[in-house]
Amino acid sequence: MALAFDEYGRPFIILKEQEQKSRLRGLDAQKSNISAGKAVARILRTSLGPKGMDKILSSPDGDVTISNDGATILEQMDVDNQIAKLMVELSRSQDYEIGDGTTGVVVLAGALLEQAEKLLERGIHPIRVAEGYETASRIAVEHLEHVANKFEFGVTDLEPLIQTCMTTLSSKIVNRCKRSLAEIAVKAVLAVADLERKDVNLDLIKVEGKVGGKLEDTELIYGIVVDKDMSHPQMPKQIEDAQIAILTCPFEPPKPKTKHKVDIDTVEKFQTLRKQEQQYFDDMVQKCKDVGATLVICQWGFDDEANHLLMNRNLPAVRWVGGVELELIAIATGGRIVPRFQELTPEKLGKAGLVLEKSFGTTKDRMLYIEHCANSRAVTIFIRGGNKMIIEETKRSIHDALCVARNLIRNNSIVYGGGSAEISASIAVEAAADKHPGVEQYAIRAFGDALEYIPMALAENSGLQPIETLSAVKSQQIKDNYAHYGIDCNDVGTNDMREQNVFETLIGKQQQILLATQVVKMILKIDDVISPSEY
């Protein structure tokens, strides 16, 4: 394919004839695949670590996203190459399983592919490289288990959890508020956690945002925040000790399911029909009043007549509340979602200590706070920020911190960050390579070299001399036999990550190594790419 221009300067493309096109096979195909994987990793390499750069992503609609989250960047990139799509899937898998480390896993996979290319050029068979990588990954994972530390935390001692979440937030745009956001994330997770079963349901944590205010105004609400207001402006804005009826049935007369037609030819018939309709509304409102409801939350809307009747009967109501929000309100208040008015009973009402309608700024935006609920195991993180992009990026950052706190509750083993875990694992892998007499030892050594790409990228992104810094830290680890020396990205003055309180979860780091190895093995075993039109 070639680009050419006619005599008027208009561009046109010259395509080769299909029969003259050649398809890559064997070693050429593998090298092409490796190049595609490396290209994706190169994009994310500069976003790694606390001093990593951000990427600006523009959608076809003109929407702009600013982020340094690996999963978000790859999700919004328009990727056509099949191998590059595998790298996108790799980042997504890390995000689904762990929630953090989405950039590191792609950078590591790119490093493994780069090392594999050198081995292929030396004539080593791809299967041998894949087997060597598999052996090395097991050695690295076992070594991380060996150097990991366990720490105990409780409801009163949250500092270890907060420090680990702060490490995650250090590499985000929101790092200036990392302490307060980490505390919010940890308190939210502990509010919904079942510590006996070591299980956390993140669906019970709702993350809501509203443009305006400062990032420091972000707060944790032990209840639910709904982006709705009272259906009538004259309804009370504050209800204490609320009894909440949660309805999925509309405030309107029932409609026949068959096709129907009503002919009205006299005023009396119209009056009768109107009275009947009004009676329906009266009965619905009265049923809510009879069971003791002081607030009605409805999934559907209701017309002005029903709204006026609710206001006259002093029964505040909220309409058009989404299904997910309705479920969270039911969980938080201990109520039941009622599909028909006939099934409404006092036992099915939800209970909340305070329902409050708040307005924000001069835009007349209003939101409903449902607090002091009967069941506090549903919470809301309410984010404020200067613009929509900041709020969206804060939501992604908070999600990563929530996932890290959840992982620590499931497994409280940690390794130290700053690349110290990778350097330590690299030393262990290189030492183990000498014990393998076959060709695999070259692949095992290459795996050890690839692990060092993470601390090198951290040093490079922090403005340090990458090779010099890595060599100094590695020799320090070997000399002192101490696995917690890492890259001093924040220029604190010490390489000891234990002193800097830079933690990462063990399962997150192990998952990174295992996932990256699996994807690289898959890429190395592909020696031909066949499109549907070729068979």
Describe the structure concisely for a colleague:
By secondary structure, this protein is an alpha+beta fold. Helix content is 47%, strand content 16%.
Walk me through this protein's architecture:
This protein is an alpha+beta fold. It has 3 domains: 19-150 and 416-532, GROEL, domain 1; 152-207 and 381-411, GROEL, domain 2 (2-Layer Sandwich), CATH 3.30.260; 223-375, GroEL. Helix content is 47%, strand content 16%. It is built from 17 helices and 19 strands. It has helices at residues 26-45, 70-76, 82-97, 102-121, 126-147, 159-169, 178-192, 267-290, 304-312, 323-333, 388-410, 420-433, 440-451, 453-461, 466-480, 497-500, 506-524, and strands at 2-5, 11-14, 55-58, 64-67, 149-150, 193-194, 199-200, 205-211, 219-221, 223-226, 238-247, 295-298, 317-318, 337-338, 350-360, 365-373, 379-385, 413-416, 503-505. Strands 10, 11, 12, 13, 14, 15 and 16 form a 7-stranded mixed sheet that branches. The chain has a 3-stranded antiparallel sheet with strand order 5-18-19. Helix 2 packs antiparallel against helix 3, helix 3 (82-97) packs across helix 4 and helix 7 (178-192) crosses helix 11 (388-410). It is elongated and about 100 Å long. This is T-complex protein 1 subunit epsilon. Molecular chaperone; assists the folding of proteins upon ATP hydrolysis. Known to play a role, in vitro, in the folding of actin and tubulin. Belongs to the TCP-1 chaperonin family. Its main location: cytoplasm.
